[in-house]
Design a protein that fits this description.
Elements (H helix, E strand, L loop, with lengths): L1 H24 E14 L2 E4 L2 E10 L4 E12 L1 E3 L2 E16 L6 E15 L6 E16 L2 E12 L3 E13 L1
Antiparallel strand pairs: 1-2, 1-3, 1-10, 3-4, 4-6, 5-6, 6-7, 7-8, 8-9, 9-10
C-alpha cells in the first residue's frame, strides 16, 4: 500500500509539475530544516538537515513540490540521541499571491524520514504532513519560512521549521 501511494504521488507530481516547470513558473532551491521530535518522557530532540526543493505552479493558487535531503547535525540530550539520515517529501501548497510578491500558503503532503539512534538500527517512518508558510519574491529570487507537522504518530511527533532560498524560472 505504501509503495503504491509513493508511486502514485511521484507519477502525479512528475506529470503535473513538468508542464508548470517548463512554462516558466517553476523553482529550485535549498532548505535548512530544524526538526523537533516530541517523545513522551524524553526531552525534545532537535536534529537538523538540508534539502533540495523542486516545484512548480499548477495555477495561480496551487503548487506541487518535491524535496529530498540529508541530515547535517544530530542532537544529544541526557544520553538520548537522534539524527536524520535522509528525508523525502512530496507536497501540495495552496495559497494566494499577494501583490505579486508574497505567497502565504497551507501545505498538505507526504514525508518519509530515515532516523538513526545509537544502539538501534536505523528506522524509516512516513506519514501525511500538514503545515503553513510563506514565500517572499524578489524577481526570480525567493526566500521562505515554513512550519510543518511532518509526522504525527501515536508514540512521537516530528515537527519541522524550514528556512528556504530558491530561484524561480
Amino acid at each position: 500500500m505504501k509503495k503504491a501511494l509513493i508511486g502514485t504521488a511521484l507519477a502525479s507530481g512528475l506529470l503535473l509539475a513538468t508542464p508548470a516547470t517548463f512554462a516558466g513558473t517553476g523553482y529550485i532551491g535549498l532548505d535548512y530544516q530544524m526538526f523537533t521530535t516530541v517523545i513522551e518522557e524524553v526531552p525534545d530532540l532537535q536534529p537538523e538537515a538540508v534539502a533540495l526543493r523542486l516545484g512548480g505552479h499548477l495555477n495561480d493558487y496551487f503548487q506541487v513540490e518535491g524535496r529530498i535531503g540529508s541530515g547535517t547535525k544530530n542532537d544529544n540530550i541526557e544520553g538520548d540521541s537522534l539524527q536524520v539520515d535522509n528525508i523525502f517529501g512530496f507536497y501540495l501548497k495552496g495559497g494566494v499571491d499577494l501583490a505579486n510578491m508574497f505567497f502565504p500558503y497551507l501545505l498538505l503532503g507526504y514525508t518519509k524520514v530515515e532516523f538513526q539512534s545509537p544502539g538501534e538500527l536505523g528506522q524509516t517512518e512516513s506519514d501525511m504532513s500538514y503545515g503553513f508558510g510563506g514565500d517572499l519574491h524578489f524577481g526570480s529570487f525567493q526566500i521562505g519560512a515554513e512550519w510543518m507537522m511532518a509526522q504525527e504518530k501515536t508514540d512521537y511527533e516530528l515537527k519541522m521549521t524550514t528556512v528556504s532560498v530558491a530561484w524561480r524560472f
